[in-house]
Amino acid sequence: MEDKVLLDIEKTRGEVIRVEVSEFKGKKLLNIRTWYTNDAGELAPTKKGVTLTYEQFQKLQTILPQIEELLRA
User: Fold this and answer.
1) N or C: which end of the chain has fewer CB within 10 A?
2) What's the whole-model pTM score?
3) In 1-73, where do the E strands start and end?
4) The CATH number, out of the four listed (2.40.50.180, 3.30.450.40, 1.10.10.10, 2.30.31.10), of the domain defined by the range 4-72
5) At 1, is the pLDDT very low, low, confident or very high (cuts 50, 70, 90)?
């Protein structure tokens, strides 16, 4: 499977938070990671971020309504 970029959120000048689904050792993963613009002008990943398995994503998904409510308050 080829990496599937779902969303780039501008963080700072030259940096984005990238949300993508990728595959590693046969497992599909959700990556939410900071990417930066390197010297060649290309986006490259940093170590800043989190990778979730499907099971971990399911746990996170259960509290998304609560997170939204807290952020709106």
Assistant:
1) C
2) 0.86
3) 4-12, 15-24, 27-37, 43-52
4) 2.30.31.10
5) confident
